[in-house]
Structures are given as C-alpha cells and as structure tokens.
Amino acid sequence: MLKNLEGKKLTVEQMKDIAGGSWGESYFIDLKNAYDRKMKGFENMDPMSGDTAVYCLQNWDSVVGNLKDMFARHGIEMTYKGKPTESNIYMYEGKKITSDEAWKIIDSHANG
Fold first, then answer.
1. What angle do CA 25, 29, 30 make, to 5 degrees?
2. In the beta sheet, which residues pair with residue 76?
C-alpha cells in the first residue's frame, strides 16, 4: 500500500484514514504548520504528499523527536501521547496550552 502513495498527493479521504489522536494532531496540525512556515527541517515535508506520509510512517519516532525539538527551541514542551484517543500535551512557562496557542507563541517569536 505504501508504494502506491509514493510521488502522489493524498486525497482528503486518504488523510482521514490515517488521522487520529495524537498522531493526527502531530501530523495534520504540527507537521502541517511547520511545513507551511518553512521551519528548519520541515521545509520539504508537505503532509499532503504521499512521499511525506511514507517517510513519516517509516520514521515516526524521528519525526516526533524533531517536532519536540522544534517546540523546545521556542520554550514549549510537547508531550506526544501516541494513542488515538489522546491529544498531545503542550506546556509553556509551566502552564498547559493548546496546540493553537503553541503555534501563536512560535509565530510571535518569528515576528518579534
């Protein structure tokens, strides 16, 4: 199945098939935001690309580690839960924040 995705864009239906919980949050929100903002290390990781999906499925621990490192550079601790029913946890200055709030902090650092 993975070979069928190489070099192709994923459809919304295909994306829904692999979405869920913290994996979906990390892939569809965090990875997409990092790609859209051309964050270092994520410039070529278009989450809508079949090649990116294949890479992520084969190297997910490394991708999550890179996401955690990226957040940490902005003072945000991201805890990846890994379960389909649980969301990631984002902490900033000792307070739990949402993924959206984490990205607002990153954006403020880029603009400030």
1. 90
2. 92
- Return the exposure string of 57-89: e unless at least 16 CB atoms fall within 10 Å of the residue's CB, then b: eeeeeebbebbbebbeebebebebeeeeeebbe
Per-residue pLDDT of the chain (112 residues; tens, 9 = 90+): 344 455 566 555 555 545 555 777 888 899 999 999 999 999 999 999 989 988 998 998 999 999 999 999 999 999 998 776 788 999 999 999 999 999 999 999 887 5
CA distance 85 to 104: 25
Measure CA 16 to chain center: 15
Q: Residue 14 in contact with residue 73, Cβ under 8 Å?
A: no
